[in-house]
């Protein structure tokens, strides 16, 4: 006997049918697996504004991966001595988790490990509380910081061979991954200039590449115990001399050789802010998943989107899988970025700013998606 669907049921199911036919295929045809944003975690006073920003701006812009630089801006229970003043609570982090889940955004926390344990004239929390972890305790933080300086001080590092340092930092990693319900963790690892210091009783005379690779491998293996995946910045894995890229976006202290010593499961966030350098091809050839990262120059972001699309179009199936996509990076506080975003005008689209660059990246990705 032939039956038909009642009219009222048709009215009920029709919107879901439209969603399935028109919206889901568009999502499935996205050019890149990662359309990302990396930004500092918001202060408690701006949390509600940030949640709204995710809902109303980031999700509609096509962002599907959000890396939040948390560091010590969380009320750690395992290591309360490492909390910043007025840190995010567990309940507040859950608000971030909820809004990202709602919008299909992967939320990844970041805590800087190894390097970036100080900034300018400020010693960060880890070395302030545990000075014994300092790779270069003989280098004092100046009252007035200047670069360049006689000590070669950019950012301090912790000693990767100190016997107690991982007991502390892995407590932070485990807790932050759990509260963020994360399947990945970003460890930073960029711009590490203090390593294998000649005055360190544990590291002196050692190969910087082996020290760097050993630290990445140790962090990676620890995360694997909880089925979490490691992200790092890629600059220390590029040979500055051979590439001509220079000391900031590449390594001049031989850590670049670690690229052949670390697990292939590590995801490389390959940042280049002045030019769309083709180093994602290098990392994909080495077997790593890689994301190209921009900051302030809109044209660089546009060229990175085009470059990643061209690489994928011309890659073997093996390499194509490694080319994950693009990510914009913000190095000002989250509240500053949100305010600048609100004040940004269409006429400002070609100016050099993190907002203009972000909008250029997302627009370029959308344009590619529309061509599919």
Q: Sketch the topology as an H/E string, one letter per element.
A: HEHEHEEEHHEHEHEHEHHEHH
Shape: globular
What is the annotated CATH architecture?
Alpha-Beta Barrel
What is the count of β-strands?
10
- Measured distance between first and last alpha carbons: 43 Å
Biggest sheet: strand arrangement: 1-2-3-6-7-8-9-10
User: Average pLDDT across residues?
Assistant: 93
Strand content: 5-15%
- Note the main sheet: 8 strands, parallel, barrel
CATH class: Alpha Beta
What is the CATH superfamily label? Glycosidases
Give the quaternary arrangement of the chains.
single chain
Q: What is the helix content? A: 25-40%
Find the structural class using helix and strand composition: alpha/beta
* Total number of domains: 1
Query: How many helices in DSSP terms?
Result: 12
The Rg value, from CA coordinates, equals 22 Å
* CATH fold-level label: TIM Barrel
Low-confidence runs (pLDDT<50, min 5 residues)? 1-7, 9-28
What does this structure look like?
- This protein is of the alpha/beta class.
- It has one domain: Alpha-Beta Barrel (TIM Barrel).
- Helices cover 39% and strands 14% of the residues.
- The strands form two sheets. The protein has an eight-stranded parallel barrel, surrounded by six helices.
- Strand 1 (34-40), helix 2 (47-58) and strand 2 (65-69) form a beta-alpha-beta unit.
- The longest helix has 22 residues, at 7-28.
């Amino acid at each position: 006997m032939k039956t038909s669907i009642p009219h009222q049921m048709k009215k009920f199911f029709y919107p879901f049918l439209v969603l399935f036919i028109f919206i889901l295929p568009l999502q499935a045809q996205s050019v890149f697996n990662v359309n990302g944003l990396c930004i500092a975690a918001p202060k408690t006073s701006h949390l509600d504004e940030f949640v709204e920003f995710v809902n109303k701006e980031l999700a509609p812009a096509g962002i599907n991966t959000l890396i939040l630089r948390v560091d010590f801006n969380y009320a750690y229970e395992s290591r309360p001595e490492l909390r910043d003043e007025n840190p995010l609570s567990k309940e507040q982090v859950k608000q971030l988790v909820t809004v990202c889940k709602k919008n299909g955004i992967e939320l990844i926390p970041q805590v800087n490990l190894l390097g970036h344990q100080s900034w300018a004239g400020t010693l960060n929390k880890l070395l302030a509380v545990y000075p014994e972890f300092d790779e270069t305790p003989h280098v004092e933080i100046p009252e007035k910081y200047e670069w360049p300086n006689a000590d070669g001080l950019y950012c301090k590092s912790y000693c990767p061979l100190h016997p107690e340092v991982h007991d502390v930092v892995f407590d932070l990693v485990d807790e932050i991954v759990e509260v963020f319900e994360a399947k990945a963790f970003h460890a930073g690892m960029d711009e590490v200039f203090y390593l294998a210091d000649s005055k360190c009783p544990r590291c002196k005379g050692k190969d910087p590449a082996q020290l760097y690779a050993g630290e990445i491998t140790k962090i990676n293996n620890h995360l694997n115990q909880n089925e979490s995946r490691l992200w790092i910045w890629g600059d220390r894995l590029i040979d500055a001399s051979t590439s001509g890229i220079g000391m900031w976006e590449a390594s001049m202290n031989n850590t670049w050789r670690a690229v052949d010593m670390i697990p292939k499961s590590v995801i490389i966030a390959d940042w280049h802010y002045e030019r769309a350098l083709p180093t994602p091809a290098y990392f994909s050839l080495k077997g790593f998943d890689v994301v190209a990262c921009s900051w302030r120059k809109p044209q660089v972001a546009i060229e990175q989107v085009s470059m990643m699309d061209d690489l994928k179009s011309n890659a073997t199936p093996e390499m194509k899988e490694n080319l994950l996509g693009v990510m914009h990076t913000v190095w000002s506080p989250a509240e500053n970025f949100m305010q600048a975003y609100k004040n940004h005008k269409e006429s400002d689209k070609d100016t050099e700013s993190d907002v203009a660059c972000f909008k250029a990246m997302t627009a370029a990705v959308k344009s590619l998606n529309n061509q599919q």
